[in-house]
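User: ok so my PI wants both of these folded by tonight, can you help

Assistant: No problem, let's get them done. Here's the first:
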Amino acid sequence: MTLRLFMLLALACCAGQVASEEPVIPTEKETIEFQTRLGVVTFRHQMHAGLSATECTTCHHTFKAEEGPVQACHTCHEHKKPSADAAPKAKTAFHTRCIGCHEYTTEQGDPAGPLKKKCKLCHVK
């Protein structure tokens, strides 16, 4: 009985510890810079990954661990939309995903990063 109780407690502790760990982001991806016509956009990947309400699949929406590593956004979201069935352009996808999340977070009463119509807060020349 004592051994079973000990094992259950050990499993519960391990499960809690694994669930609370932050995602592992490669060092070269902790901060990502996107070159745009309006200036460089710096995305602090490590900071966003550490947010409690954010899961990797929030942004990496097509990620499947069994298929290998996460693909770069521009793999699907190109600069120009080549056809009607293609993924949205990178600019559209980023603005929708990033600004939308910042707006939602602000509406919930939590601090968030830059919002739309303040382009120079993200795009720095």
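One down. Here's the second:
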Amino acid sequence: MAKTPVNLPVLKVFAPLLLIVGVLGFVMPASMALTSGAAPYNIFHLVFGAVGLGCVFSKRLDAVRSFNIGFGLIDLYQAIASFADLWPKAAFQWKAADDVLHVVVGLGLVAVGVLADRALSVPQKA
């Protein structure tokens, strides 16, 4: 019985979500937003949402897993950067909600990327 991949459906949801967040960042008034609406941060979400969709459309599990792990690590870095006043804190103008999301999403994506679908990525011996 073939196993169903986990990373692909996760990224099928997450990549469009990144695009939506990027667009909403540009159209939602800052006074109503729980997260940063800084233009560089919105562009970051749009670019990575597009890259994520590219990985989804490629249907290459290695690319999808790599994106999930890589973006998860970037999210964790953003949480650290926010607390340690590191680049790109000034440009991205994170809020407290961003910090929470970066930790939760970062840990989730890294966990899914590392733990799920490992057997599907390794060629099976007959």
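The chain is about 75% helix and 0% strand. The chain has a mean pLDDT of 93. Good luck tonight!
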